[in-house]
Design a protein that fits this description.
The structure holds two protein chains of two kinds. By secondary structure, chain A is mainly α. Chain A has four helices and no strands. Classes of the chains: A mainly alpha, B alpha/beta. Chain A binds chain B through residues 14, 25-27, 30-38, 41, 54-55, 57-61, and chain B through 85, 201-208, 210, 226-227, 230, 233-238, 415, 418-419, 422, 426-428.
Chain lengths: 76, 458
């Protein structure tokens, strides 16, 4: 899951692999602005065939948050 | 109130122990804010900054930005706020043009700066002296520096304050960039009235923004139509739950579609939905409370503010005169004369007034693309694209996104084009779509038929 998410985020934000880390979050790079963030959430939902609850989506800020949320959603 | 530095002096004397400004990591009272700004002013003067010198501020929305802004004003210098996300090439072009004496950014020696002896009294500036130099999207592809005097800014602040009805109880969450007039104006108005502001660099960390609206006890939230769409489309339940304390929202930078206004009002029936119209060159010029005016006027941007002289030219262009209008563009007499003949601003916006004097904006006389408040000059994007080897020529139009048409002998990789653009353009200026075509549509005289591309199917 982590590799798939990594590839998706790099492709979606059009960033270099070296810019990626678990701590990277919305607003840290000009490429990850509010619109890109919304598009990223939708892309993750499509790719992993899940739908985040609004209350969860609102707390997705960093790569680590996406990883944690995906683990929860895939386990349930 | 004679100059912007007086806002700080007033806060220091009237509300020294009241919180003035906060961000995710700290907050300052008016007294603490004043002391920080006075240290910055003392340090700037020790660096040789003289009244009228430009000082660039390249910081994100933060407590530090506000301290720095007032520090520069206190020193009698001209604030030149710049978006920290601006690519280096754009930054260098602006620095070359504005020639700031000092650039204050995250790497500045802040420990030394705050160790400087505070400057007790603000340097006196006259109403016609420059207060701010604001860089905006130019029509020629060059950044243009809008000069705003102390009187320009203070008159605009007074108008906005009256319109919004600010009180010392108001607390605002500001995500709009302080490097632009809209966000900056709200910060200044709020502090002018003894309120408090919480600053967040944009809406990307929307969870933090929504938490702040609730925990900071926000009564006001200025945003763009894009911000309204984001909140209603993606985060509606949480937004509505946390925005119950909001007294007003102000929407500016681009027209708020009437259906969005209706949706926002239905989601938060007690909210006062306010809309401004204005350009950096004249601050806010018209205003309307959509809540008070009702659905019949959801498509209007309102009536002229106090002392604003608004007319519609025979061509349909909106013309603005009065005390909020800039004296001109920095080091650009040609552009000043073309855009501000006789001191009247030719906005480039097309519009009409109804029988009651309400303004309706119908489009642009030039080609600037406005995407939910982000202004993009297609010429600038085209120039960057045409520097890419293989692109013979390019044309850029807005079609709900930035769409680039290019002429080339073979299809070019969109990701590679994106990376090329991002070296010189802001992310929002970078095209989202690239379409190769055989030739750009042109008139017999060779003028690009941009409208044809706007209407072209995919």
């Amino acid at each position: 899951m982590e590799d798939k998410l990594r590839d998706l985020i790099i492709a979606q934000l059009k960033i270099e692999p070296g810019q990626y880390s678990d701590e990277l979050g919305a607003g840290d790079l000009p490429e990850w602005d509010s619109l890109a963030h919304m598009n990223l959430i939708m892309a993750v939902e499509r790719e992993f065939k899940i739908t985040f609850d609004v209350a969860d989506a609102v707390d997705l800020e960093t790569v680590g948050d996406f990883q944690d949320a995906l683990r929860r959603y895939q386990a349930s | 109130m004679q100059q912007l530095a007086d806002i700080l002096a007033q806060g220091q004397s009237q509300w020294p122990n009241k919180v003035a400004v906060a961000d995710a990591s700290r907050s300052l009272t008016y007294g603490e804010l004043a002391l920080g700004a006075q240290c910055i002013a003392g340090w700037l003067i020790a660096q040789g900054v003289a009244p009228g010198d430009r000082v660039a501020i390249r910081l994100p929305n933060s407590v530090r930005f506000v301290e720095t802004f007032f520090g520069v004003q206190w020193a009698g210098a001209v604030t030149t706020p710049l978006d920290p996300a601006m690519p280096e090439a754009q930054f260098r072009a602006i620095v070359k043009r504005a020639e700031p004496k000092v650039v204050l950014d995250a790497q500045s020696p802040w420990e030394d700066i705050f160790s400087a002896a505070p400057l007790g009294e603000a340097v006196n500036r006259a109403p016609d002296d420059l207060a701010s130099l604001m860089f905006t999207t130019g029509t020629t592809g060059q950044p243009k520096g809008v000069m705003l005097t102390q009187a320009n800014v203070l008159t605009a602040l007074q108008n906005i304050t009256e319109f919004v009805g600010y009180t010392p109880a108001d607390r605002e969450v500001i995500t709009l960039p302080l490097s632009h007039n809209f966000g900056l104006g709200h910060m200044l108005c709020n502090l002018l009235c003894g309120g408090a502001v919480y600053l967040e660099p944009g809406m990307s960390r929307v969870g933090r923004v929504l938490k702040a609206i609730e925990s900071f006890g926000a009564t006001g939230f200025p945003t763009t139509p894009l911000g309204v769409s984001l909140l209603l489309d993606r985060y509606r339940e949480v937004f509505v739950e946390r925005a119950q304390g909001l007294r007003f929202m102000v929407v500016n930078s681009a027209p708020l579609p009437p259906e969005r206004a209706a949706e926002l009002q239905a989601a938060l029936p007690d909210l006062n939905v306010l809309v401004y119209y204005g350009l950096t060159e004249a601050s806010r010029s018209t205003y309307i409370s959509l809540t008070e005016a009702g659905p019949d006027r959801y498509g209007s941007v309102g009536q002229p503010m106090n002392a604003v002289d608004l007319k519609i030219a025979d061509t349909g262009e909106v013309l603005i005169g009065g005390p909020t209008v800039t004296p001109g563009y920095w080091c650009d007499d040609e552009l000043t004369q073309a855009t501000l003949p006789n001191g009247v601003l030719h906005t480039g916006d097309l519009g009409h007034l109804d029988g009651d004097g309400y303004l309706y904006i119908t489009g642009r006389a030039d080609d600037i693309i406005n995407l939910g408040g982000y202004k993009i000059n297609p010429l600038q994007v085209e120039r960057v694209l045409e520097q890419f080897t293989g692109v013979a020529e390019a044309a850029v139009v807005g079609k709900g996104e930035v769409c680039a048409y290019y002429v080339a002998t073979e299809e070019l990789d969109a990701d590679v084009l994106t990376k090329h653009c991002r070296t010189q353009l802001q992310v929002y200026e970078t095209p989202q779509r690239y379409i190769r075509i055989d030739a750009l549509p042109r008139t017999d005289s060779g003028k690009l038929k941009r409208q044809e591309l706007r209407q072209a199917g995919d």
